[in-house]
Every structure is written in structure tokens, then in C-alpha cells.
């Protein structure tokens, strides 16, 4: 259940139930009905005292019917060993009018009138599996407000025909106005409670006149106070708001009695506690559930926004502030930050712009405080802020989000004005609204960014968390954006949608002094994306100025994103050194490559047709093209052998990636051309071969029909006698190693896996090293988050140094150690053996010895990190690619 549902349930409780109320309260938080029934019957109740309920781990509840001192009672109960033994999460003591509670884990207390129980429902949320820290992270006030507005939105949509684009725009504007009024009446912009109070007292409970009342009020809010002749007296207390918010014609929707009631309920919240940082995202998440996720967009927490804007510009401004030690330097610093412009071309509900604005205002406040410390007489001169909302630009494709972004900036401005007043005693009124963020509603891929935010002068920073949308998840509109951007439908079809933002962004900043930092899925910096996208980025004269390597993305919106992301900062003149962030640590490097590695050069790995290290070729396994008739289950194989033991010479193990990783056993008929007559003399074999002939001859593909003349053979035969290595094309990211198999001639590798024939044990050991898996995970790309192993990107590009006979022998020894260790666990699947929580200790030690040998081979010290190993590999790749080019 969500918070709103719990609050609604608590609000509907019959508070006159006396001692029985505890059972209804527990049910309201979703605790199991069967357990509560046993508690009520006494089975689960560990207290035999009348009026007491003690449920182990959950609650102690005492109902006092005789006017006892509740405070004395709860002090006694909290120290009672009988209660402490059962570890109840909450201790409750109550009577018919009052309730006291103690959280035995956090030691928080509650002391309320029983009628206030629903307003304090959050106190008992651990019963629903939501801890206090989670509540704080969710911004509880924002969640409550957003969910109430979502209920109102749903009810209004039910009662109104919202069909045209104009209808939607009008509804968006109405909700933005409503949000502003709720916030205004709780933050002294309007008289306290005046907006909700006016609706409650001046409109009919049926809701039939609510829309007319709101339309009249909203018209008044756009009239200067000096021009309000003839305006009803009950509207005169509301100030002149000005700005687009109330000047655009947009009628309020029709209200039902239920809609009016929900609106009044929303008005009872304390909107001064609302955080514009995240509230807009909450609004979108609840009003358009799933819509932004479907578009590949993810809401951004304050913590993650700071990961973007701190290295982009805030850290440098902090350093400049620290050095400003005179009044004149501080005044120049304030002028500098007042000239900063921030542009988010995928601004959503404005989170990035709001946080950037608030951080710049805080810097200004710190500078003003320092000026006052240096010159006390100057403090009286501080009457306004130099930082204007007009310096904040955005593009947003969703009309509702655009309205919320503008509103969020106004709310942020008012919050910072309140902070200014508390620091310097000067009032900066929010209304009349005199400036607003320059937020445009439109498609950022087709709009000219210079028309929205001209790239002129210094201190322009492009930020954001653009939509991701992998190639298989893109909408028709997003695919059309690719065609529009490239000017042709012959664009690379496997590229994620976010690539367009980096391509357009790099072009935009290359025309001036602007710098850019976007959140991105890490796929942009892995696999084929690098060769498809980054040459065009680097070709604009743009380089990576800073980066956060892959990290798990979380946020505070309900149903928040859970993806692996990176942050990439771009500049035409990056600082030296550059900062690379990984696992919460920062290090200085001379260069950052498109793979987000601290390599000396921005090397891009291109697909290669053959191994640059001259390794044996990697290919697919053999493809049956047989409609399943050449493939045998264990039972089918046994049935054939029972009827005709001589068939054993024509049956071999058959393995693809699934068989390798899960231990599934299958077989196949494998008949050489010279053995056809002998095989066809066996009825069961001949019958299966005949079925293959029939299926192939009836195919609509001429290539398949041509195979009908040799139905005993696989459609594509790649199997070779001797040892081979089988490599799954996909493997879970949870495995530190991509598990491979070392096989002999008795197993035929299927086309559902990669294969290396004539493979030696030393090569198997090298490919089972941590260093090789790191290369695969970086240059080979991913399918979702799993490894994707390909010949052209992973294997053929893998850099291998010259190997002495000594190293070949040592690697071969490690190969046999790995195979022997696996054999000891033949009852377990190979896929599970390589999961970190299931890998046996002896197998782990064998791999550690193998990795030590391979690290030494590449010149990596034992203390090297995986990232540093990759940097060594890229250096060797550069040498290898250069040698290949010279040889050509």
C-alpha cells in the first residue's frame, strides 16, 4: 500500500471501538488478517491482562478505561521486562480521547488526541514495511501532496471530457494555478489559509459552483490591486500575482462534490513543507503513471543532480568564493554568479534548474554574509537578489511538466527569498511575479537550442537527464527524431535515443564557450555505441571534461528508476587534469576516453574481422536447420540406442549456451558423408533424416531447399575434430567471469553459442581471466545489463602480449586447475558456480591464481583495480591497432 491508502484507511476507523481499535488499526496498515484474527482470539496475544494486547515483534497496546495517567502508564510499560522480551515495535497506551506511543527501535514518541490519529499515520508506517529513513528519503510531505493531487486529477478527468490538445493544456494550467494557491496560502504570499477557507465557505458542497468561483478568483489574481474596483470584497485579500500563470485564458474544469472534497482535503496540508526539488517529479509520477518511464525518462534526486552540477560549475565557484577575501572581490563574485546561465533541454518538471538556482542563491547568501562580516554597515544595503529566474532555460515536451517546471522555479525562488529575509531582514515579495524561468514546451531534438537559449558569452552550462530509450523501446516519434536529426532514414538503428542529445549537445557547445553534463545509461560508453556515436562527438572538437563511471541510479519518485547510469561532462576546453569519479572516489587523470577510462588517448575500439592478436578464429557453432529432427533429448537418444546400439557412432553431445550454463543434456545425429550408407541402414536414424529432407524441401527459402539433398548433415557445419572452446553469447553481469567450456570432439557446439576450434588450454585460461571479462564488459556492450560476447568486438580486439613458452605452460596449468575444480562440483550448474554468492572457495582460489598470472603477463600489479587493468589493456590495444594499420 502507499501512504495515501494507509492514511485513508486510518481516517475511516471507528475511534469509539475502545480496546478493539488496535485490531482495526493493524488491519489499516496491511498486516495479515489471519494473524490479526489469531491475535484477537488470544492465540498470538502474549498478555493475559484484560485490556492489553501484546503481539510479538509488532505491538503492545493497553486501553485505559478508568482515567489512568497515560504518561505514567507508558513509562512503566516501556521498562517492563515482560514487554521487552517480546520486542514489540510499538508500545501504545490510550484511552477514549488520547493516544501515546513509543517506537521501541527509534525511541520516537507520539502524544496526540485520538481524533488526530489519521494525521499522524506516518508514525506507524514500519508496520507497512516503511522505515523512518525511507519516509524521509521519500519527502513525506511531497508524497502526501502529490497523491492528493493525483486523486483530484483522476476525479476531474472522470467528470470532464478532456479530449483535445487545448483541453489538456487548460487542465495543466489549472493544476499549476491550484498548486500555486495552495503554496501561497501557507507561505504568507496570501493570508494564511485564505484560499482553502474561501472555497470551503463560499462554494456549495455539491461542487456545481466551484469552477465558476475559481475562474473569478483567478481573474482577480491577474488584476493589480489599484485597479480592482467592483471586485467582491472576499477577493480583495488576495494579492496581485501577475505573470503568465493567471493571464492565459484557461477555464477551470467542472467539479463534482467528491472533487471539491478532495481539493479541500489537499488544502489542509502544510504546503510550506513542499520541496520543489522533487515535488514536480512526484506530480508527474502519480498523474501520468508509467508514462515517463515508457519514454525512457527517469526522475533525478538532489544527490544525483549535484553529481552533475558540482563538477560542471559549482565546485569551481566554491573555490572562487573561498579566495574572495575583500568586499570588492566578493561583489565581483556575486556579479559573476548572477551571470551564470543554466539550460536543461530535457527539463521535465525542472529539478535540475531548481537545484541549480537554489545552490547559486545559497552561494550569493554566503557571499553577502561575508561582506557583512567585513563591513557591518553594508548589511542594511542588502535588499534583493542579483540572481534572476530568467537565467534558467529549459525545453520540455510534456505540457504539464513544463507548467510544473515554471511553478517549481517560482516556489524555489520564494523559499530562497524567505531564507534571505531570515538572514538580512529584507523582504523580497514573490508577487507580483516579475521573472520566470524561460521554459519552452516542445521537442528538443527538432528545436533549435540557440533560439531557446543563445550560446553567447561565458558561464553557460547545459545540464540534464535526457530520455534513454534503447533501440527496441523507442516510440515511432523517437525514431522519427533520428531520421530528422540525421537527415536520412539510413541512420544506425541500434543506437539509444539518448545519443541524439549528446550529438546535438556537442554541436551546440562547440559553437561557443558553453559546457555540458548529462546523465546517461552506461550503454553510451560501451560496445558498439562508442564507435557509432563518439567519433561524431569528438569530431566537434569536444572532449570529456569529467565523468562518473557506472553507478546504480536511484531517485525519490514513487516507482523510481533502477538503472545503471553514468554522468558525462563535455567541454571544448576541459581543465587539466580532469576528474574521474568511481565508487564515490575521485582521481585526477590527463584524459578521459569515451569508455570513461583514464587512458592517455581517447581510443575507440572498432569491430575487427579477425583477431588483432592472431588468436584462432572465433565463429558460431553448427546450425542444424532441421526443424529439430537431428536433435535428441536424453530419452530419444536412449530409445534409439535400445533399438539399435550400432547408432552410437552417429550420436554426439550437442551443446549451446543454455546447455553449458544450466547443465541441460542434449544430443544430435552427426553423420559424415562417408558414413551415410551405414547410417541409413538403421531405421530410427533413417526415419529422422527423411523428416529433415521433407521439411527442407518444403521451405520457402531456396537456400534451405538446396540443403534437402543432404538431409543427414547440419545446415551449417563448423564442427572440427580436436579440442574447442564454447562461449555463451550472453552472460549475467553478476558473474565476475563469463563461464566458458573446454570440449573435445565428442561434443558438437550449436549455433546458439560461439566456438573456437583447435583451441589450446592456455587460450581457455586467458579467456577465463578477470582481465578478459573486464574487456568484454567494456567494449562488447550489454544486452540489458548482461554481457554480450561477440567475435568482432570482444574477441578479435582483445589485446594479448607476446607469450613465452613459460607463460603458455603456466596458463595451461591454470586451465586444468579450473577444469578440475569445476569437476568436483559436477552436480551443480556451471552458471550457478560462477555467481558470487555460490562460487566455491576452492574454485575461487584457482581463479585468483590464474588472475595473478594474467595480471603479471600484462604488467599489472596485484593491487590494480579493474579500471586500472582496463587502462593497461587500452594502451596495448592502441599499439596492436597501430601495428595492424602499418601492416595493411
Please tell me about this protein's structure.
The chain is α/β, with parallel strands linked by helices. The chain is globular. It has 34 helices and 25 strands. The longest helix has 26 residues, at 399-424. 44% of the residues lie in helices and 13% in strands.
List keywords for this structure.
single chain, 888 residues, alpha/beta, nine-stranded mixed β-sheet, five-stranded mixed β-sheet, 25 strands, 44% helix, globular
Write a concise synopsis of the structure shown.
The protein has 888 residues and is an alpha/beta fold. Helices cover 44% and strands 13% of the residues. Strands 8-7-6-9-10-12-11-13-14 form a 9-stranded mixed sheet, with helices on both faces. A 5-stranded mixed sheet has the order 1-2-3-4-5, with helices on one face. A 4-stranded antiparallel sheet has the order 15-23-19-21, with no helix packed on it.
Amino acid at each position: 500500500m502507499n501512504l495515501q491508502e494507509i492514511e485513508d484507511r486510518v481516517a475511516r476507523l471507528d475511534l469509539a471501538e475502545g480496546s478493539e481499535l488496535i485490531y482495526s488499526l493493524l488491519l489499516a496498515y496491511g498486516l495479515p488478517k489471519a494473524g490479526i484474527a489469531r491475535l484477537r482470539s488470544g492465540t498470538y496475544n502474549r498478555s493475559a491482562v484484560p485490556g492489553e494486547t501484546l503481539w510479538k515483534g509488532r505491538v503492545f497496546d493497553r486501553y485505559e478505561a478508568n482515567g489512568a495517567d497515560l504518561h505514567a502508564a507508558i513509562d512503566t510499560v516501556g521498562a517492563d521486562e515482560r514487554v521487552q522480551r517480546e520486542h514489540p515495535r510499538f508500545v501504545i497506551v490510550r484511552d477514549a480521547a488520547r493516544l501515546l506511543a513509543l517506537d521501541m527501535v527509534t525511541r520516537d514518541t507520539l502524544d496526540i488526541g485520538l481524533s488526530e490519529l489519521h494525521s499522524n499515520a506516518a508514525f506507524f508506517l514500519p508496520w507497512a514495511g516503511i522505515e523512518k529513513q525511507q519516509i524521509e528519503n521519500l519527502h513525506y510531505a511531497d508524497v502526501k501532496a502529490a497523491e492528493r493531487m493525483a486523486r483530484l486529477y483522476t476525479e476531474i478527468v472522470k467528470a470532464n471530457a478532456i479530449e483535445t490538445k487545448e483541453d489538456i493544456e487548460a487542465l495543466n494550467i489549472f493544476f499549476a494555478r491550484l498548486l500555486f494557491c495552495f503554496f501561497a496560502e501557507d507561505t504568507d504570499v496570501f493570508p494564511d489559509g485564505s484560499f482553502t477557507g474561501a472555497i470551503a465557505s463560499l462554494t456549495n458542497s455539491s461542487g456545481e459552483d466551484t469552477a465558476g468561483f475559481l475562474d473569478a478568483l483567478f481573474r482577480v489574481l491577474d488584476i493589480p490591486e489599484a485597479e480592482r474596483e467592483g471586485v467582491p470584497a472576499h477577493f480583495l485579500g488576495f494579492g496581485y500575482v501577475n505573470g503568465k500563470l493567471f493571464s492565459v485564458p484557461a477555464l477551470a474544469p467542472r467539479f463534482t462534490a467528491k472533487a471539491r472534497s478532495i481539493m479541500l482535503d489537499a488544502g489542509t496540508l502544510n504546503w510550506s513543507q513542499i520541496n520543489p526539488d522533487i515535488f514536480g517529479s512526484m506530480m508527474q509520477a502519480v498523474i501520468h503513471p508509467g508514462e515517463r518511464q515508457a519514454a525512457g525518462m527517469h526522475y533525478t534526486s538532489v544527490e544525483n543532480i549535484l553529481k552533475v552540477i558540482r563538477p560542471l560549475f559549482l565546485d569551481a565557484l566554491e573555490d572562487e568564493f573561498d579566495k574572495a577575501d575583500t568586499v570588492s572581490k566578493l561583489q565581483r563574485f556575486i556579479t559573476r554568479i548572477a551571470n551564470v546561465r543554466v539550460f536543461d533541454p530535457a527539463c521535465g518538471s525542472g529539478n535540475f534548474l531548481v537545484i541549480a538556482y537554489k545552490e547559486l542563491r545559497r552561494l550569493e547568501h554566503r557571499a553577502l554574509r561575508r561582506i557583512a562580516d567585513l563591513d557591518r554597515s553594508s548589511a542594511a544595503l542588502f535588499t534583493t537578489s542579483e540572481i534572476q529566474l530568467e537565467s534558467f532555460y529549459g525545453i520540455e515536451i510534456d505540457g504539464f511538466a513544463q507548467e510544473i517546471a515554471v511553478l517549481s522555479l517560482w516556489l524555489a525562488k520564494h523559499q530562497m527569498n524567505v531564507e534571505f529575509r531570515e538572514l538580512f531582514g529584507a523582504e523580497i515579495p514573490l508577487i507580483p511575479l516579475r521573472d520566470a524561468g524561460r521554459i519552452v514546451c516542445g521537442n528538443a531534438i527538432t528545436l533549435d537550442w540557440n533560439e531557446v537559449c543563445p550560446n553567447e558569452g561565458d558561464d553557460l552550462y547545459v545540464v540534464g537527464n535526457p530520455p534513454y530509450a534503447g533501440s527496441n523501446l523507442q516510440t515511432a516519434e523517437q525514431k522519427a527524431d533520428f531520421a530528422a536529426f540525421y537527415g536520412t532514414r539510413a541512420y544506425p538503428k541500434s543506437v539509444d535515443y539518448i545519443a541524439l542529445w549528446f550529438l546535438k549537445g556537442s554541436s551546440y557547445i562547440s559553437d561557443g564557450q558553453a559546457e555540458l553534463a548529462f546523465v546517461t545509461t552506461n550503454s553510451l560508453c560501451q560496445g558498439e555505441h562508442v564507435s557509432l556515436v563518439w567519433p561524431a562527438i569528438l569530431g566537434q572538437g569536444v572532449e570529456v571534461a569529467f565523468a562518473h563511471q557506472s553507478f546504480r541510479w536511484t531517485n525519490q519518485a514513487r516507482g523510481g528508476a533502477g538503472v545503471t547510469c553514468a554522468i558525462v561532462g563535455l567541454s571544448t576546453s576541459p581543465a587539466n587534469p580532469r576528474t574521474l569519479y568511481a565508487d564515490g572516489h575521485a582521481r585526477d587523470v590527463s584524459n578521459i576516453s569515451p569508455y570513461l577510462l583514464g587512458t592517455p588517448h581517447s581510443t575507440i575500439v572498432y569491430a575487427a574481422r579477425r583477431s588483432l592478436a592472431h588468436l584462432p578464429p572465433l565463429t558460431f557453432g553448427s546450425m542444424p536447420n532441421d526443424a529439430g529432427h537431428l536433435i535428441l533429448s536424453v530419452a530419444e537418444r536412449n530409445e534409439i540406442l535400445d533399438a539399435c546400439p550400432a547408432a552410437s557412432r552417429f550420436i554426439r553431445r550437442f551443446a549451446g549456451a543454455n546447455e553449458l550454463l544450466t547443465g541441460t543434456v542434449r544430443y544430435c545425429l552427426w553423420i559424415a558423408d562417408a558414413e551415410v550408407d551405414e547410417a541409413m541402414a538403421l531405421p530410427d536414424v533413417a526415419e529422422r533424416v527423411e523428416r529433415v529432407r521433407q521439411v527442407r524441401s518444403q521451405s520457402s527459402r531456396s537456400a534451405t531447399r538446396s540443403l534437402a539433398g543432404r538431409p543427414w548433415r547440419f545446415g551449417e557445419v563448423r564442427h572440427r575434430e580436436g579440442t574447442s572452446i564454447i562461449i555463451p553469447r550472453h552472460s549475467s553481469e553478476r558473474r565476475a567471469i563469463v563461464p566458458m567450456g573446454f570440449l573435445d570432439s565428442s561434443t558438437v557446439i550449436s549455433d546458439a553459442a560461439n566456438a573456437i576450434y583447435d583451441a589450446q588450454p592456455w587460450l581457455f585460461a586467458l579467456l577465463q581471466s578477470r582481465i578478459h571479462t573486464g574487456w568484454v564488459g567494456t567494449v562488447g556492450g550489454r544486452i540489458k545489463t548482461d554481457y554480450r560476447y561477440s567475435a568482432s568486438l570482444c574477441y578479435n580486439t582483445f589485446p594479448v602480449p607476446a607469450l613465452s613458452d613459460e607463460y603458455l605452460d603456466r596458463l595451461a596449468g591454470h586451465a586444468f586447475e579450473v577444469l578440475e575444480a569445476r569437476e568436483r562440483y559436477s552436480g551443480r550448474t556451471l552458471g550457478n558456480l560462477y555467481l558470487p554468492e555460490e562460487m566455491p572457495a576452492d574454485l575461487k582460489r584457482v581463479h585468483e591464481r590464474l588472475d595473478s598470472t594474467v595480471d603479471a603477463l600484462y604488467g599489472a600489479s596485484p593491487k590494480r583495480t579493474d579500471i586500472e587493468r582496463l587502462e593497461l589493456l587500452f594502451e596495448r590495444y592502441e599499439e596492436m591497432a597501430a601495428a595492424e594499420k602499418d601492416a595493411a
